[in-house]
Amino acid sequence: MYEQGVIRPPSEAWSLLIRVTRNCPWNQCLFCPAYKGTKFSRRSVEEVKADIDAMAGEYGKNIHMIKTAFLQDADSLILKTEQILEILRHLKARFPGIERVTTYARANTLKRKSVEEFLQLKEAAGQQRL
Ligand code: SF4
User: Fold this and answer.
1) Residue of 31, 35, 40, 109 to mutate, ligand 1, most atoms within 8 A of C-beta
2) In-domain check, residue 130
3) Residue from 32, 39, 78 to probe ligand 1 pocket by mutation (most atoms less than 8 Å from CB)
4) 3 falls within a domain
5) Ligand 1 centroid, distance to 113 Cα (angstroms)
6) Residue 15: inside a domain
7) Containing domain of residue 28, as a range?
8) Would residue 5 count as lying in a domain?
9) How far is the CA of 55 from the centre of ligand 1 (A)?
10) Distance between CA 11 and CA 43 in Å, rounded?
11) 44 secondary structure, DSSP code
12) What order of strands is seen across the sheet that includes strand 100-103?
């Protein structure tokens, strides 16, 4: 068993959905009903890694078919960079065929990370570009 959120971009229909947080830490955009009435929480790295292991077990010998992953929910980069790096490294170790990892993030969250942190995230995800 593993936990997944219900919201993902349409373009991620075939992606592995990795829930690293629950709901939205901001939840104040007037136009957005997506997470109204819900409470934000962070998931522990150990919980997320256990989910990745459970998914890997489910895919079994078809694991190389998985090429993309999406980190949920609304603002995944609010986690500490070292936590995201640990999750990405575990994801790449268990799903070696993954070529692209995407996520949602608020601008205010992004501006708190340094260029060096983004480069570390890019390398851990094994991507050609950010
Ligand atoms: S940050 Fe995103 S998910 Fe959160 S309230 Fe605004 S639009 Fe909705």
Assistant:
1) 35
2) no
3) 32
4) no
5) 19
6) yes
7) 10-125
8) no
9) 27
10) 24
11) P
12) 16-19, 68-72, 100-103
Span 68-79, pLDDT tens digits: 999 999 999 999
Q: What total number of domains does the chain contain? A: 1
Taking the C-alpha atoms of residue 49 and residue 52, their distance in angstroms, rounded to an integer, is: 5
Does this model's pTM top 0.85? yes
Q: Which residue is closest in CA terms to ligand 1's atom 6?
A: 29
The CATH number of whichever domain residue 85 belongs to comes to 3.30.750.210
Note the pLDDT tens digit of each residue in 42-83: 999 999 999 999 999 999 999 999 999 999 999 999 999 999
Write the Ramachandran bin of 126: left for phi over 0, alpha for psi from -120 to 50, otherwise beta: left
Closest by CA position to 18, among listed 62, 66, 81, 61: 66
Q: Which of 71, 82, 14 lies closest to 48 in space, CA to CA?
A: 71
